Amino acid sequence: MNGPQAPRPALADLVARAGGRSACLALSKDPHGKVSLLLFPPAGEVPELVAKVPGSDVAARSVEAEIAALSRIDRRSLGPLAATIPRVTAVAEHEGWPVLVMNALPGRLMLAGYHSWRHTARPGAVRADFAAAGRWLAGVQERTAHGSGDLAGMLEGTATAIAARFADDSTAADLAALDALAGRLSGHPVPLVLCHGDFWPGNLLLAGGRVSGVIDWEGARPSGPPACDLARFALSYSLYLDRHARPGRRVPGHRGLRRDGWGAGLRYAIDGTGWYPDLVREFIGSGLARLGVPAALGRDVLLAELAGIAAQADHPGFARNHLLAFRALCPGRPPAGRPRPPAARRGRTWQEAPR
Asked: Which range of residues forms the domain containing residue 20?
C-alpha cells in the first residue's frame, strides 16, 4: 500500500535554489495556455531547466497529462533518440496548480527558422525541415512499433467529438463524410507507435540539421496511430505559408498560392501544383509506404487529421476553421467560389506520390 505523497516544492523555492537567472516565455494563444520559465545555472549561457506553469484549471490538467505522458515513455527502446525527449526532473506547485519541471533541450525552434526571411520560399530550406522531421519520426516509430492497429484508427472518436462540439451546426454531412473516409482508410493494418499528438514546427528543436528536441507531450500516446504525427506535420507546416504575404497577393516562392482566406496553404498543399505540393505528397507517401500503406491514401490521411484537429483543438475558432477546411476538401464538396482545378492541371497526383 502506498503511503502519503511528499508535498510538492513551491515553484518560487525551486527558482531560488537554482541560483541563476530565469526567463519567462508566454507564446501560446490558446485560451488555456501555459507559461514556460527557463532556468539558467549560475554563469550559464543556456538554460538548464524548463518549468511549465499553468494559468487555469484546464491548463493544469494539461500539465498533469504531460507529466503522466513523459513518465510512461519507455526510453530504453528509443536508444539515442531518448535524448530528444525531455525528462521530468521535478513536479512543483504554484498557487495550487502543478508545475512540470524538465531538463532543457538544445537547439532552435523550427518555427523560428520557418518565419525568418523567405525561408518557406526556398525549396532547399523547406526540404531540409521535412527531412529532419521525417527522420525523427521514422526513427521513433521504428523503435517503438508494437502490436497492430488499422489506419482508420486515426479517426477514433473524431465523429463523436465533432458531433458534440459543433452541435449547433449541421453535422449530418460531416458525419457522413467521416464515415466514408473511415471506410476508405479501414483494412490497412499499421503498427501502433509512440505518438506525440501535436507534431508541428512549433514543438521541434533543430541543431545541425537534425531534430535535437521535441517538446509539449501532453497529447502523447504510447500506443497511437503513426499516420497522425506524419499528417500533423505536413498540415501545420502548410497552414502558415501565406502568413507574410498581403491579402490577395501571391506568396513568394509558390506560384500556385495566394493569400486567399484562412486555409489557403492547406488547399494548396493537398490539391495544388508545384514543388511544395509535390514535397508534401512525397513526405506523406514515403511515410505511408514505410508503414506498409499505399501512398495513394495520403490525401485521405491528411483529411482525417484535419478532422482530428477540428475535434481536439483548444481554440474554438481554430477548430472550426479546420472543420470548414475539411468540408471544403472532402470529395464531392468543393468550396463555393473555389472549384477544384481539373485533374489534367493538377500535376503530380496522390496516386503518383513517390514511395
From this structure: 11-103
